[in-house]
């Protein structure tokens, strides 16, 4: 997926992180998956701050998979903070959430997300959602990320 660039997963739920990893394995997605637990950590990762200062160990992601419901800084707050700083320039963000609330979906798109996926409960449907996401991004021509 996306020229083997790392994928940043912004997710606080350990079970959901394991599910994403299993779905990646099922779909033979070999990209490195970097995981942070909330929007503040995602901002630090993108800024190469704190624990993420090593740019070689924490390269710019090719895509961000973003949960909305997280402690400290949720997904919407992250988008509001990151967009004006230019941190998301050239990085597609796909919301991967349990939220079916129309206002979450609308605000996410208003803040520039590339897609909004409601996490399927059944694992095989989750694997299929990840397969579809991988196929879509493998066909898309995205700008090459810059530092």
Overview of the structural elements:
Helix 2 packs parallel to helix 3. The protein has one domain: Rossmann fold (3-Layer(aba) Sandwich). The protein has 147 residues and is an alpha/beta fold. It has a five-stranded parallel sheet with strand order 2-1-3-4-5.
Which terms would index this structure?
single chain, 147 residues, Rossmann fold, 5-stranded parallel sheet, 40% helix, globular
Describe this structure in a few short sentences.
By secondary structure, the protein is α/β, with parallel strands linked by helices. 40% of the residues lie in helices and 14% in strands. The chain has helices at 14-26, 39-47, 75-85, 102-110, 123-139, and strands spanning 7-10, 33-36, 63-66, 93-97, 115-118.
């Amino acid at each position: 997926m996306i020229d083997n660039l790392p994928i940043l997963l912004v997710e606080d739920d350990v079970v959901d992180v394991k599910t994403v990893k299993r779905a990646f394995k099922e779909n033979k997605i070999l990209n490195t998956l970097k995981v942070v637990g909330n929007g503040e950590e995602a901002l630090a990762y993108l800024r190469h701050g704190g624990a993420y200062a090593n740019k070689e160990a924490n390269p710019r992601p090719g895509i961000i998979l973003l949960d909305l419901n997280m402690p400290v800084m949720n997904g919407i707050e992250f988008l509001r903070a990151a967009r004006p700083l230019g941190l998301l320039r050239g990085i597609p963000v796909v919301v991967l959430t349990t939220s079916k609330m129309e206002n979450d979906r609308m605000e996410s798109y208003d803040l520039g997300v590339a897609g909004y996926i409601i996490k399927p409960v059944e694992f095989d449907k989750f694997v299929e959602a990840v397969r579809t996401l991988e196929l879509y991004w493998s066909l898309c021509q995205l700008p090459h990320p810059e530092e």
